[in-house]
Design goal:
By secondary structure, the chain is of the alpha+beta class. It folds into two domains: 50 residues, no CATH class; 66 residues, Ribosomal Protein L30, Chain: A, CATH 3.30.1390. It has seven helices and three strands; from the N terminus they run ααααβααβαβ. It has a three-stranded antiparallel β-sheet with strand order 2-1-3, with helices on one face. α5 packs across α6. The chain is rod-shaped, with a radius of gyration of 31 Å. The two termini are 58 Å apart.
């Protein structure tokens, strides 16, 4: 191990240009490329990057009707065309899906309208 420590100390004293020249010499002698594994790693997307797909469909879920329940019921009826009783039941039931599998813009618009009426809403 003492030889490896001496070698490490000697390599630590090299300048950047000398280290680059050493890399070239080793590549030629051994017939390998130091850049190939790095390039392959950079080109291959990681598993985390593959999993991050932008969501295209959202569910608008009402968590709480809020203090202005009548306003919330009106907005639910406007968004869904439900009758008064069904809209009231939806507003009073936590985690009710007001809209399912809608686009991002529609979901965001519905969320804003419901929150303006005082409801607590979540997009899933």
């Amino acid at each position: 191990m003492a030889d490896l420590e001496k070698l490490m100390d000697a390599l630590s004293e090299l300048t950047v240009l000398e280290a680059a020249e050493l890399v070239k010499m080793l590549e030629e002698k051994w017939g390998v490329s130091a850049a190939a594994p790095v390039a392959a790693m950079a080109a291959a997307p990681s598993a985390a990057e593959e999993e991050v797909e932008e969501k295209t469909e959202f569910d608008v879920v009402i968590k709480d009707a809020g203090p202005k329940k009548i306003e919330t019921i009106k907005v639910i009826r406007q968004l869904t065309n439900l009758g008064l009783v069904d809209a009231k039941n939806m507003a009073e039931t936590p985690d009710s899906k007001v809209l399912e599998a809608v686009g991002k813009d529609i979901a965001q618009d519905a969320k804003e309208k419901l929150e303006a009426a005082g409801a607590k809403v979540e997009l899933l």
